């Protein structure tokens, strides 16, 4: 039984089908028949970029899905050749990265994955059905299903299950349901980011090969913008700011805000597009990580995944990818048997969350942050470094890959050009990185 038929729920259900004869998705929404936005996923109409790793994992869970989505109008491109990535030091150098990127709207992606899942006759959906509580065995040690209310109201009904997967998003009520049964709620790490989004849809007038344009915030210009090419010749464009600063959604103000970003890339691209809607807002207060893996006591028969486990500042586009990694991990944990599943899964999921969480909340070690700034400044001139950076930010490679000696030397080489003293600096930088010492001192 999976609570939530959104991205995390659908991907988890796919992994469950290898181990269970029947899987039921329960969602309080009536699910649309086509690729449409819906109330239970209010973020769905905002720009959703799928990280390279996310596409890779989703493709392995649903083989052929990339080509099917392209056949439905999604756009496939190379991360570097068909993307413009602006950082404080400038735009990443153009070149081929070999990293495949898919431009697809969130509603089409979700709809298509759910349709693929439901083609399997062992999957059922209980839509328009809200989960009100978990159902426990008499001794309270095991979850045996969920209590639901149908949309017609009436008394709560029990839906029994061998395993319940909570994929009900960032407002999941599992902590409260556990507490009602005498368990501790998980420790929560909440890191405020207070982001405000304004999003508008546009139609392409003159198609080019670009799939994404992104302008990151800088220390002096804390506003950012991202536009992702979607099916139907559309671009979804989101502008973001923090605290009291709010991007307007009406067209003139939206364009003016885009012009105020650190790079003109997004504003320039808007000029050639036809506006399609009136725009909408979203407010995202904080990244939130629930530490289920640290609980001493946890019932059998329950696991938590997706945003219910960790919800990231959306600016880094990580949520769907982490949900995919967790779904894959759930499959691996089940391959090893059902015993002690929750503890094993939550522990392994925490490992997948660690790096994206560090990126999202900016919790990396100071020397690393200084080194990344240097690397990005060099990547403005060097496509190989640009690709190396994207491989890490898209969760294909671990961050340690950027500390390999050839990469460090390349950063040093590009940084100082061919001038005197280059070898010295390279040597000092390499030594410091290997010893884990601050790089800027070099
Ligand atoms: C503004 C914004 C932009 C984002 N941009 C990106 C991006 O660019 N890239 C990216 O990868 N991620 C992005 N994300 C994150 C992404 O949307 C989520 O990580 C992703 O949808 C996975 O979420 P989920 O399936 O866990 O939960 P959700 O998508 O929130 O779905 C939860 C589901 O559970 C159902 N549900 C909830 N409670 C109950 C209940 N009690 N009973 C029954 N059903 C219930 C809901 O109806 C819904 O279908 C963004 C998020 C926001 C807010």
Kindly describe this structure.
The model has no long low-confidence stretch (mean pLDDT 93). The N and C termini lie far apart (55 Å). Helix 1 (7-16) links the parallel strand 1 and strand 2. This protein is globular. The chain is an alpha/beta fold and 442 residues long. The chain is built from 13 helices and 19 strands. The chain has 3 domains: 2-80 and 103-189 and 289-359, 3-Layer(bba) Sandwich (FAD/NAD(P)-binding domain), CATH 3.50.50; 192-285, 2-Layer Sandwich (Alpha-Beta Plaits); 366-435, no CATH class. Helix 12 (405-416) packs antiparallel against helix 13. The strands form 4 sheets. Strands 4, 5, 12, 13, 14, 15, 16, 17 and 19 form a 9-stranded mixed beta sheet that branches. The protein has a 5-stranded parallel beta sheet with strand order 7-2-1-11-18. Strands 8-9-10 form a 3-stranded antiparallel beta sheet. Bound molecules: flavin-adenine dinucleotide (FAD). Flavin-adenine dinucleotide binds at residues 3-9, 26-29, 40-41, 43, 46-49, 130-131, 167-169, 197, 282, 284, 306-308, 314, 317-321, 323.
Helix-strand layout with pairing:
Blueprint: E1 2-3, H1 7-16, E2 23-26, H2 52-61, H3 65-71, E3 75-78, E4 83-87, E5 90-91, E6 100-103, H4 106-118, E7 123-126, E8 129-136, E9 143-150, E10 153-160, E11 164-166, H5 174-180, E12 187-204, E13 212-215, E14 224-230, E15 234-242, H6 251-259, H7 265-270, E16 273-275, E17 280-291, E18 302-304, E19 310-311, H8 319-335, H9 341-361, H10 366-379, H11 383-393, H12 405-416, H13 422-435
Parallel strand pairs: 1-2, 1-11, 2-7, 4-13, 11-18
Antiparallel strand pairs: 3-6, 4-5, 8-9, 9-10, 12-15, 12-16, 12-17, 13-14, 14-15, 17-19
Helix pairs in contact: 1-4, 1-8, 2-8, 8-9, 10-11, 10-12, 12-13
Bound molecules: flavin-adenine dinucleotide (FAD).
């Amino acid at each position: 039984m999976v609570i939530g038929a959104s991205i995390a729920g659908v991907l988890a259900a796919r992994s469950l089908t290898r181990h269970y004869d029947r899987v039921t998705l329960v969602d309080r929404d009536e699910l649309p028949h086509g690729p449409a936005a819906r109330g239970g996923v209010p973020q769905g109409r905002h720009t959703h970029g799928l990280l390279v790793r996310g596409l890779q994992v989703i493709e392995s869970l649903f083989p052929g899905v990339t080509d099917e989505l392209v056949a439905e109008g999604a756009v496939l491109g190379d991360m570097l050749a068909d993307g413009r990535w602006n950082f404080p030091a400038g735009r990443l150098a153009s070149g081929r990265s070999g990293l495949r990127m898919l431009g697809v709207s969130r509603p089409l992606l979700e709809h298509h994955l759910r349709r693929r899942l439901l083609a399997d006759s062992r999957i059922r959906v209980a839509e328009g059905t809200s989960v009100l509580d978990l159902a426990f065995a008499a001794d309270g040690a095991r979850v045996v299903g969920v209590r639901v209310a149908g949309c017609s109201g009436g008394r709560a009904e029990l839906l029994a299950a061998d395993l319940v997967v909570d994929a009900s998003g960032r407002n999941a009520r599992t902590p409260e349901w556990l507490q009602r049964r005498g368990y501790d709620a998980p420790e929560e790490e909440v890191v405020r980011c207070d982001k405000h989004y304004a999003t508008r849809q546009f139609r392409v007038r003159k198609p080019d090969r670009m799939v994404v344009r992104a302008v990151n915030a800088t220390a002096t210009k804390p506003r950012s913008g991202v536009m992702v090419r979607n099916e139907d010749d559309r671009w979804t464009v989101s502008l973001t700011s923090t605290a009291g600063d709010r991007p307007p959604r009406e067209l003139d103000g939206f364009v003016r805000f885009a012009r105020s970003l650190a790079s003109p890339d997004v504003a320039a691209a808007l000029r050639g597009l036809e506006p399609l809607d009136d725009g909408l807002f979203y407010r995202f207060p904080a990244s939130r990580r629930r530490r289920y893996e640290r609980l001493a006591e946890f019932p059998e028969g329950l696991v938590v995944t997706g945003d219910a486990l960790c919800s990231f500042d959306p600016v880094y586009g990580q949520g769907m990818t982490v949900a995919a990694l967790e779904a894959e991990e759930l499959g691996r944990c089940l391959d090893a048997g059902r015993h002690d599943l929750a503890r094993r899964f939550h522990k392994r999921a925490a490992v997948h969350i660690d790096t994206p969480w560090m990126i999202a909340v900016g919790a990396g070690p100071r020397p690393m942050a200084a080194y990344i700034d240097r690397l990005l400044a060099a990547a403005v001139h060097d496509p190989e470094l640009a690709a190396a950076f994207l491989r890490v930010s898209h969760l294909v490679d671990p961050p340690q890959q950027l500390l390999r000696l050839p990469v460090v030397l390349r950063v040093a080489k590009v940084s100082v050009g061919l001038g005197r003293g280059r070898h010295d600096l390279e040597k000092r930088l390499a030594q410091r990185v290997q010893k884990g010492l601050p790089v800027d001192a070099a």
